[in-house]
Specification:
alpha/beta, 2 domains, Vcp-like ATPase, Chain A, domain 2, Rossmann fold, seven-stranded mixed β-sheet
């Protein structure tokens, strides 16, 4: 990550050639002799600092063809979900691969993310983003529409990120290990209500619904205040746990 300020920060790959900005260019080869935390100066005399990118940086700088799940929501999904190193996770609706990047990072080194997407353009873009982030070996990309069942069974976690998540709750139930978690994100109250109602019917309990709001604070000598703009409503998160509907019935 090349960082100058909040407006000038770039996630780059060290290759041959030059990286151009409005503050001048940087010879990318020269970065090979630098360490994280050091600075590098453009041909115009402007300093950039070389930082190790965070997972949030990788997520926010994916090439987007769709809306993404933001880090503020991804953090809640990880904390409430049954996600851990070695976990097997199903993701339906890959979007731009932002959440795929998060999951792949956390299931390493022995887990796997099974990502389903029916739009081939979205799938190919997400595949490129995940590959760019060095996480492809922990993801299996699947170009198909799921109706009744996923290919996998006894997985640790299922995330549904489509416009009508209630349509895949049966499929999620059959794929999940008992006692493990399901999650989805709904933009509207109507989607939220229908999804929660379906979860209750289909054998899920411990249903938690939250909306995550994060507001940054501008800290400046004598004039600190909250930011005027913030990423507020991105969606309602729903998390639920699979149980047996009856003894011996999975």
């Amino acid at each position: 990550m090349l960082f100058r300020d909040e407006r000038h920060n770039y996630l780059i790959k060290v290759t041959k050639g030059r990286f151009h900005t409005d503050k001048g260019f940087i010879d990318l080869e020269s970065l090979r002799n630098k360490n994280f935390g050091e600075k590098i100066t453009t041909n115009m005399g402007e300093d950039f600092y070389i930082l190790h990118p965070s997972l949030s940086d990788l997520v926010m700088k994916v090439n987007r063809q769709t809306q993404i799940i933001y880090p503020k929501d991804a953090g809640i999904i990880l904390m409430y979900g049954t996600v851990h190193p070695g976990a097997r996770i199903i993701e339906a609706g890959i979007g731009s691969g932002a959440m795929t990047t998060v999951f792949a990072n956390f299931v390493r080194p022995h887990g796997k993310v099974y990502s389903y997407e029916q739009n081939i353009d979205f799938l190919n873009n997400a595949r490129k983003n995940v590959h760019k982030n060095g996480l492809s070996q922990w993801v299996e990309f699947k170009h198909r529409k799921v109706i009744d069942r996923f290919d996998e069974e006894d997985v640790d976690f299922v995330l549904i990120d489509i416009g009508s998540p209630w349509e895949l709750i049966d499929a999620a139930y059959h794929a999940l290990k008992p006692g493990h978690r399901f999650a989805t994100i709904c933009p509207t109250f109507e989607q939220l209500m229908r999804t929660v109602s379906t979860l209750k019917e289909k054998g899920f309990v411990n249903i938690v619904t939250v909306e995550v709001l994060v507001r940054r604070i501008l800290v400046r000598e004598g004039r600190s205040r909250p930011e005027q703009r913030m990423p507020s409503h991105t969606g309602f998160l729903i998390l639920a746990t699979k149980i047996y509907l009856s003894s011996g019935n999975n």
